[in-house]
Design a protein that fits this description.
690 residues, alpha+beta, Rossmann fold, 8-stranded mixed beta sheet, 5-stranded mixed beta sheet, globular, Peptidase_S9B_N, AB_hydrolase_fold
Amino acid sequence: MTESFPRLHARTRRFTLGVPRNFTISPDGGRVTFLRTRSGTDPVTCLWELDVASGAERLVVDPLALGAADEDLPPEERARRERSRESAGGVVAYATDREVRRAVFALSGDLYLTDLASGGARRLPAAGPVIDPRLDPTGARVAYVTGGALHVLEIDTEADAGADSGAGTSLAEPEGDLVTYGLAEFIAAEEMGRMRGYWWSPSGDRLLVARVDESPVTLWHIADPANPDRQPVPQRYPAAGTANAEVTLHVIGLDGARTAVPFEQEYLVTAAWDAHGLAIVTLSRDQRTMRLLSADPDTGETTLLREDTDPAWVDIVAGVPARLSDGRLVWVADADGGHRLVVGDEPVTPPSLQVRAVLDVDGDTVLFQASGEPSEVHLWTYTAGTISAVTTEPGVHSGRRAGGVTLVARQSLDTEGTTVTVGSASINSLAERPGLEPRVSLVRAGSRELSTAILLPSWHVPGSGPLPVLMDPYGGPHAQRVLSARRMFLESQWWAEQGFAVIVADGRGTPGRGPAFEREMLHDFTISLQDQVDALQGAAALHPGDLDLSRVAIRGWSFGGYLAALAVLRRPDVFHAAVAGAPVTDWRLYDTCYTERYLGHPDEGHYERSSLLGDAEKGERPLLLIHGLADDNVVAAHTLRLSSALLAAGRPHTVLPLSGVTHMTPQEVVAENLLLLQLDFLRKSLNITG
């Protein structure tokens, strides 16, 4: 390896380039369509297909061959990619018909159709820059959004016709600048995992469409201080306790006929429209009640099928609702202390197996992800009353299933990168080799037996002398860092090679250990700090003489940045320096759905305890605050307000503003130098020489 790890880590987008993803299996199980860049350093994503019987891969769409070397993305697409944390370019999303014979995608705002058998791609006419194109199940039509309007284009089915007539029909035009049809609003995309705003009927004769009105949402402005000649970017941001966008649903026919589908609750979680009918899932503003409703597409009348309640919150689970071939409901719900798969009305998995997502329903077989041990994620199937383990080797697994064929994507600690298998065939990963091998021990640390990873330098001899410690957590709810996958620890191992004992710990609130463990964070984010202290002490007990507890630093991003700043402000007796990247410092400035789920409405009085602004006068340890000034998720006001409070209290600190950088920091030079600047700061702060 000729490049340094920080440079390679940045160029490869954290070693995600070249990894196959976004799999679609044909109904007969014979073909798999997927996305992958052509190398581990190539940021242009291509569309590929695998023949399962022969194992042969075929390049279907190369964006460069279509003349899309320089992407020109509409603002809505840039926002969608920010919400989905998409760091690559090219064909980053696609949609197929039911038979997986055709696929559509957007490239630099243009609309393209490809025949998967021939591999030929052609540009279709569109009324403007295209967002989220989707074929109807029959493959005869494509819908897309442009300018906030939903359009449908009839595709010429004659192979040699050569052209289409016009740019299609606009089925729904926005009534104002703050109205859109067919797009997910900020909250749905950022916090609920819903990246879409319309759904085709099974026959392709009409669509369920979300109308979003952002006029009630508070108007913020994202300024670019490095370029004062530029206008600030307006941003409708639903901060905690303020109004959300108004979302309504409508069934719209191809002739424009519209039927409202009313629902009472604040949030539209998802929708599903299959041969068994139309269903929607909604969630109350306090997130303690979730409803599954069937809807009559002719009248819009809804019927309550299921209502789930919880005194803390009801979890949103990917992949549900779904149906077996006989129409029985597939759902995930909490019961008897576990996240359980429900078929019909009965839980079919034990409480000890924490179901994470439903991946596919293939006839009468359900493929789902679940954990017995929180650091591992396995694939399971449910068929005819029996659950069976698909994967048993240690690791983190995902997959798809159709036509009786199961695709398995595996990451583990004993293999590099991601391996993808489909029957006897495999899909190659072209990711770069990182040039270092994590020396990671997964343990249970502290009185709560927290899932903890301990990484030491490859050159360190146990007992040869204490190492300065770097805590490297995320620490927030509904996210994990301690997983049995090598890629999770590449950056942590690089830090270890710089002379640190690195500790990564998942505290209360993180998934994989059941509802009770996750809900201990209710109304108090600061318990995450106590868990980091417990994990540190537990790790030190497991490695006597190897950890120097007089030199402990902590770093993190987003919630991890909040946790890092919290650590040096409230526990300077334990933590001696911190790097806080894009930290949430005042939870009133973060969004409704995430913040209110855990802290409730601001009027309930749970925000002050978790805010950092009141702790500024306690600042006595070195603190580096890093923030992208173009961040529209955790806006730069968080860091600036904490900095102002620290200054008012006369407390020294360092601020590193990143001009033009969002929450993802995808820029190569920025990502590389951020690691190096953090290293320099922590070495100086902890008096590390050599």
